[in-house]
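Hi D.,

Good news: the full-assembly prediction came through. Inputs first.
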Amino acid sequence: MGAEEPLLRVEGVGKAYFSNRVLKNVNFTLGKGRILGLVGENGAGKSTLMNILFGMRVIQETGGYEGKILIDGSEVSFRSPMDALKAGIGMVHQEFSLIPGFSVAENIVLNRETLVYNPLVEAFGDRLTTLDRAAMTRRADEAISKLNIELDSSTLISELPVGYKQFTEIAREIDKKGTRLLVLDEPTAVLTESEAEILLDSMRRLARHGISIIFISHRLQEVMSVCDDIVILRDGEVVLQTTPAETSVRQIAGAMVGRRIDRGESEGREERAPGKPVMEIENLWVDMPGETVRNVSLTVYEGEILGIGGMAGQGKLGIANGIMGLHPAGGSVSFEGRAIELNNPESPLAAGISAVSEDRRGVGLLLEESIAWNIIFTSLQMQGRFLRQFGPVKIRDEEGIAECARKYIRDLEIKCTSERQHVQELSGGNQQKVCLAKAFETRPKLLFVAEPTRGIDVGAKRVVLDTLKRYNREHGMTIVVISSELEELRSVCDRIAIIDKGAVAGILPAATPSEAFGYLLMGAGAAEAEKAAADNSNGMEAANA
Amino acid sequence: MKRMTGGEAVRLFCVRNAVPIVFLLVSAIGIYYSQFTAEYLIQEMLTRLARNAFLVLSLLIPIMAGMGLNFGMVLGAMAGQIGLIFISDWNVSGLYGMTLAALIATPLAILFGWMCGAVLNKARGREMVTSYILGFFMNGVYQLAVLYGFGSVVPILNPELVLSRGYGIRNVTNLDGIRNTLDNAIPLDIMGIHIPLATFLVIGVFCLFIVWFRRTKLGQDMRATGQDLGVAHAAGIPVMRTRIISIVISTVLAAYGQIIFLQNVGTLNTYNSHEQAGVFAIASLLVGGATVARASILNVFTGVLLFHLMFVVSPMAGKYLVGDAQIGEYFRVFVCYAIISLALVLHAWRRHADKVRARAALRGESGGAA
Amino acid sequence: MNRVRKFIEEAGWPRILIAVFLVALFITAPFVGVPVDAALSDTLVRFGMNGVLVLAMVPMVQSGCGLNFGLPLGIIAGLLGAVTSVELEAKGIPGVLAAMLIATPIAVLLGWCYGLLLNKVKGEEMMIATYVGFSSVAFMCIMWLVLPYSSSNMVWGYAGKGLRTTVSVEEFWQKAISDIGAFNIGDAFYFPTGMFLFLLLLCGLMWIFMRTRTGTAMTTVGSNPEYAKASGVNINRMRTLSVILSTWLGALGIIVYEQSFGFIQLYMGPFMMAFPAVAALLIGGASVKKASIVNVVVGTFLFQGILTMTPSVINSMLQTDMSEVIRIIVSNGMILYALTRVTKVRS
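Then the structure:
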């Protein structure tokens, strides 16, 4: 580490959102001109840590954080992202914040343009200074040259390929005076392989210029090739702090997913014989923004609970949405031997497939309508139930609807004043139960459940997962659970498929040790995962013996 | 970037400028049938260009700030008219009169504009329809003030302005004091055609102002705000304030525009003049090839010329073509509204198409599997 | 206290002010010498005249197409029906029915095209609807001159062609619906029973429709299109259907209006007709996204009440006619209020 004080020192940082602890006693340092890889599953605490570092409002609004952050040896406490920027910390987000109709140069210097004074300023204020376009271009070109890439600063952003938008963002951070620490949040997720290679090169160059970088990625090879230090977070704690030279892909994968006491195993997981194939997915692609599915082939067996896992943005959510006809899709999907028409939501619903959307408030619920209406609408619409004869026409059977809603309110322990209460007044967990009730009421043969426990409290989590299991066991409902939380999948599923880069990276039985899943999550290849799994079971067998 | 061939470039030009081209064709047919002389038309076009250009120019800045067509410019027109009522009352004439009217109108327009901007900030995403209704609403307030307040609460000295009942301004206010003062300030006649040079100079200065304004920090902020509110906000630009400023500038300029317009017309229809100002200015701008999201100074001049050309020739063309001038008159009303509808539809359509295209770009190579 | 505050919050200040204003007008009326029975009768007649036009807003609001500023399109269909019925010299109830029957296919066709257009411009419906309404009115101005109607009751006497700006239906079907079972109490109070029954019928049909499978789907599309899509509803089809319904009701509405009024107003007559209807609906408690039949009834009554009462009461009090100004401020103020209300969905 050297005698010199490191640029950034994080000391005992912790954070709890009310009763929910997300970060515990995080310690690490980052020296000048070094690249630190920050690795962890979704929900491991990476974003919270970055939010603290940036002084995001959400942190103060929820009661601040514990521990200290030191820059150049003196403690800092940022009250807003602006403070962080002033201290020389720049961040490149996953979502671009670029103005599409502006040129690269204009975006690089956005709101920090080079200005020229003119007399009108005296009368009308600073904002009437004129822009010095030549100087702006010069600054932009300078920043771009530091990245060592080919990019014409006069091109409009809207005409750039995705990768170069990323570079523009980085160039903007470099152009900011005194940027010393750059945070890149999953920058390679949207890049092609060759673009990613260029980006890694640029990062090394920047580091040589003395800029320190925090590189958040789950691509193990990238982390290993570019980073000087690696910090692995799990459940809000630093579980491993190492350097590429001292570690292996396998160690990182293991650390990231961890060896927790496997509940499934401890409860005595039942080995169930697979039923016959019920759904065949072949070469599915789905154009879902942020969750693109490129080429997925998968078989679902009757009566099983299949888990689909993967890092955020890799496309696992796109699968269900594509099959349900909510996003443009292609490829072929058949259910019980009959083809499902893609891009037509009616087709899967009519075939007996339902889905619980991960976007509860956006797709899953009618927030301004009653619980009852939310639960029965799909059944009413698709199956013509809950209607009664009224003269020549059929109208809603309000009594039947209320009856049905009350049944679910009892069954799923939905906390509400009555079935007439509007869904927007319910808590997240209860909203999720309404979503489940809606899906159950269509009496599906196959049910997709996406992110069933996202944003809901522990109690509701248990009810939701138990209910899924119960419907699977009691009603023989085939269920596909899609979740970012590997442990959750392992606790309810029979098999788990991991999606990476829009394709299936591998499918393993849920009882497989988590380390093997770690390999798949980090894009380390199926072969190694299987090897790890095999090693592990050998090891276990040996231990048992 | 691939190079475009000549043919493609021409086609692109035609697609981009479809509206002005169609208008040019319709007007050409109209001119042919209307039997107007060239002198008459040129004189008429020059007059109308001088009369209307300023009003249309006032629409440019809110478009830059992404707030669409500022139907709220009628608020500015009202402010201008109130200024004119006062100078008629005080009998201040000539350029002094116009300047004084502008001075009175400015604070009012700033107030109206600020109010309009604040309301529009609360109705983000539906600025146009809101500014449109706001125009109607303020028309009611204006009538309340002018028809009941003037002469009772606000002292009006000149009895000729006031309705016989003792308060309220008459329907028609004579603007003899300032009629054509600006137009004739620098007399210039070429081949019997009168050219309102001073008015053109004012318009020219104003165009320079807009060109300059685009290069200021504020102009840049407005463009950024207009293109992506969220990003601009994240970059630290005070977006809400910027939006209000754009509307205030537009309203003030519309007030000046209305004063210039009325000095040319010479009479003020107290309760109607402002109502038409908005619709005609917006239609002109759109005819010139502008869209809800993009407008240039060139669009303004082309638009004013083409729109008013059609306006002038259509009744006569209608008369000679189908023997009924009334049809021509209705035709131009129809065109006026149809062109605005068309522009709005095209804009909404294109925005939708852009969204689809942006998503297709994100899809990357996955689409190849299809 | 809390309940009062909650009530005010839910109803919104403007609505309460308007209701209080109307009550005050009715209370003041007798003191300034305005006969209450005549005023009430007027209010009721105007309520009946405008009710259907306001009802025409409901389907489009419910399906998420926003306030139907394009109402003139439906009105045009109604006018064509009415004019054709006069041309055929159909009288009495058959006359009105003929007008409605002829208007129906035109309204459906126009509504269908209009619906397709609105599906292409989601999110900007209201502004475009306004201008589609305006342009269609302007277009019809030309058509009224050109269309080959020849009944001497309708065309300009001197030219022998081209329809007049107002056509009297006195000899044909004036009050044909209104007078069914109508009665008078005293000299001044007239109750148009037929017109009320007709409005009631349409409201009832709408109430039933909103409870059918299709009607439920329509409401859901307006409430959350994504949810509706995920439940297998064809969003565009529902929206188009709602636009057709709105347009058709607009056509019926104007015929009801004309038979009571006694005149068919052509040319620029329908130009601004959408605004009072929109304002009435909003005053009744509807928002840009939700409207019910109760909103229609309450809103029409309040708004028409104010329109009838202000001229007479304010005139008697101040010896000046401020009703026009008040109408402009109240109706547009109400629309403005609704447009600037932040919809609190989506965090």
